[in-house]
Amino acid sequence: MMIVTAALIKATGNTAIISENADLYKTWADYLKANALIPGIQSTTDGVMAGAPSNDTNLALKGVIALKAYADILSTLGQDGSTYSDTAKSYASQWQSLAEASFGFAASYGDSGSWSICYNLFADKWLKTGLFPESVFQKMGSLYASNMNNYGLPLGSRTTLTSSHWMVFAAGVAPDITTRNLIISAAQDYIQNGKDAMPWPSIYDSIAGNATVAGVYNRPAVGGVYALLVQDLGSTVSTANSNSGGGSNGSNSRVALRSANLVLIYIFSVSLLCCLWNVIDPPFY
Fold first, then answer.
1. Please, how many CA atoms are within 13 Å of residue 257, restricted to the half-sphere of its CB?
2. Positive/negative CA dihedral, 158, 179, 232, 30
3. Range scoring the smallest mean pLDDT among 15-29, 42-56, 113-127, 157-171
4. pTM of the model as a whole
5. Using omega within 30 degrees of 0 as the cis cutoff, is the peptide bond preceding 282 cis?
6. DSSP label at 156?
7. For the chain, what is the mean pLDDT?
8. C-alpha distance from residue 172 to each of 2, 28, 99, 180, 259 (Å)
């Protein structure tokens, strides 16, 4: 919720949701401040597929980025979010050491022989929180390019299962167009040549090319494949409200652009609530 709220405010400039629920958001932020870096054992959808490790690195990423998102929201409101921002920056630095692995970043702290695609790094790019240096994304790019299967990029070393929406999140993390396109092409190959004759499943095997979990067809989480479309939208408010020059056609074009951008934000936000909502308690990262 924190990530989606920050994205919504960034796209619309409308801060009503946070102003009307300030105490609730602060409660969530304080929880993240105390627990984001060391999340312990929590139920995640990744865990359903690959087992839930203690201190899941991808889950920790999401919490740390969400904490910085809250700080940025406070800044937008003209309030002091430095305590939350400083903590998030410290956590981001510590995360890089804790998640260190022989290749990429570990699936959980201390398990240096494992790796995760760490798709939650996408939120750092999307919200432009700037918590992680380019070296992190370069490292992920090398990992992605070296671990592609027939129909996509597995979620990590513990499973061959994957999800198209999380793969596209990873494509948004990729440091170069070649790696990004490699990931997208694999997802496309599954859609065109996979073994399932059913609506696009949200979870499937990246080697066999078929869904192996019941009830994963035709789910809204697949809308996460819009990730690359919203990644660089930024704020549309000034564009829509500006009416200097260009006449009515220019004004109409700006309004149309803003409307299109907001449609994408809303569609993608609904998907995020499904595919980023992988914390059962508490569900507000």
1. 16
2. positive
3. 42-56
4. 0.84
5. yes
6. B
7. 83
8. 20, 27, 20, 7, 23
Residue type, 248: S
Q: Tokens 């937008």 — which residue? A: 76
pLDDT band of residue 61 (cuts 50, 70, 90) is: very high
| Pair 204, 196: CB distance under 8 Å | yes
Residues 6+ apart with CB under 8 A from 62: 3, 120, 123, 276, 279, 285
- 2-51 pLDDT, tens digit per residue, is 998 998 898 888 999 999 999 999 999 999 999 999 999 887 766 556 56
Cα separation, 152 vs 273, whole angstroms = 23
- Who's near 173: CB < 8 A, 6+ residues apart? 118, 119, 121, 122, 125, 137, 140, 141
Backbone angles phi, psi at 159, to 5 degrees: -155, 160
E strands of 87-172, at which residues? 161-162
Contact 271, 222 (CB under 8 A): yes
List the structure tokens of 127.
């919200």
Buried b (16+ CB within 10 A) or exposed e, 178-209: ebbebbbebbeebeeebeeeeebbbbbbbeeb
Mean pLDDT of 96-109: 93
